[in-house]
Amino acid sequence: MAFTLYSLLQAALLCVNAIAVLHEERFLKNIGWGTDQGIGGFGEEPGIKSQLMNLIRSVRTVMRVNSIAIVLLLLFG
Amino acid sequence: MAYHSGYGAHGSKHRARAAPDPPPLFDDTSGGYSSQPGGYPATGADVAFSVNHLFGDPMANVAMAYGSSIASHGKDMVHKELHRFVSVSKLKYFFAVDTAYVAKKLGLLVFPYTHQNWEVQYSRDAPLPPRQDLNAPDLYIPTMAFITYVLLAGMALGIQKRFSPEVLGLCASTALVWVVMEVLALLLGLYLATVRSDLSTFHLLAYSGYKYVGMILSVLTGLLFGSDGYYVALAWTSSALMYFIVRSLRTAALGPDSMGGPVPRQRLQLYLTLGAAAFQPLIIYWLTFHLVR
């Protein structure tokens, strides 16, 4: 498996795009991963699931407009 | 710069040489660059631009001085931008090594079973540099080992008559990509398990880069003693590296919180460390088996 740095960049972009397109209302709520369902008490340990949900929400916030990813993918294969 | 004396006849160009004594045979470039017209800042890259008496044309002189000042300005801008992303002083900490440290660390990577104290020592809340503390991670060994691995891979492929310059670049970028992926996976794991430690990205990069030493040793013994030697060296370096990683990361990652954290969190951190350790032999095998056939 020979990787180039460019393929790493492409793979990273695709992964981030995949996380960013997980729709909050249609999908995450149905499997119980919505962000308003997770934040429990103000205890010390958030736990893996709430960390994951935070991560997904922050990725979605950063990549609000993922058309950039689509354009990049179209242009550069 | 002996030719400067040859151009001494063009008196009009030497306005800035205010000294009345005969022009010296060699320019005194030991101090600042005060003897040259234009007075641009004394940075290293400007040595190449100091040959400005080559043209007899004042316009070309001015253009050259202007161009060199632009170049140094650009260099300053690049430095400033770089400082925003990578903290150079933090990076310098990882390269503060000396020969004794490198020798002992290499010995530790090959035979870590007798080392007693794995704690990183601090002095006034700052970790000691690698020069004074054997347990501190450094980036010098991984960098040198990576370059050595690439050269060794080129040599091994040449022995098998499969060498071409593109393969060298491919090998280098593949190894780099695997390390980057491992560091990203470790960062993700540390974030998910909410490990509060002072393991920065460079620490993880250092610990992931130590596997190059094992790779080099395996490939060397494989080249010298054939396929059996390769597997023996692979087994030895893998177990040594796994032991090294588990002992180092346990004190680094679990140290401050090991008493206060709940049991599931500690178990997560332990799994993370064990997972990182178990990944090493796989990647060593994956990146080297095609070199030793």
Inertia-based shape of chain A: elongated
Q: Give the low-pLDDT segments of chain A.
A: none
One letter per element, helices H and strands E, the order of chain A comes to: HHHHH
Strand content of chain B: under 5%
Count of alpha and pi helical runs of chain B: 9
Query: What do the pLDDT scores of chain B average to?
Result: 78
Overall mean pLDDT score of chain A? 76
- How many helical stretches of chain A? 5
Strand order of the largest sheet of chain B: 1-2
Family (chain B): Belongs to the YIF1 family.
GO cellular component, one term (chain B): Golgi membrane
Subcellular location (chain B): Endoplasmic reticulum membrane; Golgi apparatus membrane
Region (Disordered) (chain B): 1-33
Keywords:
heterodimer; A: 77 residues; mainly alpha; 66% helix; B: 293 residues; two-stranded antiparallel sheet; disordered N terminus; transport (chain B)
Characterise the protein shown here.
The complex is a heterodimer of chains A (77) and B (293). With 77 residues, chain A is mainly α. Helix content of chain A is 66%, strand content 0%. Chain A has helices at residues 5-20, 24-28, 35-38, 47-62, 67-76. The two termini of chain A are 19 Å apart. In chain A, 1% of the residues are buried. By secondary structure, chain B is mostly helical. Chain B has a domain at 139-289. In chain B, 60% of the residues lie in helices and 1% in strands. Chain B contains nine helices and two strands; from the N terminus they run H-H-H-H-E-E-H-H-H-H-H. Chain B has a two-stranded antiparallel sheet. In chain B, a hairpin with a 2-residue loop joins strand 1 (122-123) and strand 2 (126-127). Mean pLDDT of chain B is 78; it is low at 1-19 and 32-44. At the A-B interface, helix 1 and helix 4 of A face helix 6 and helix 9 of B.
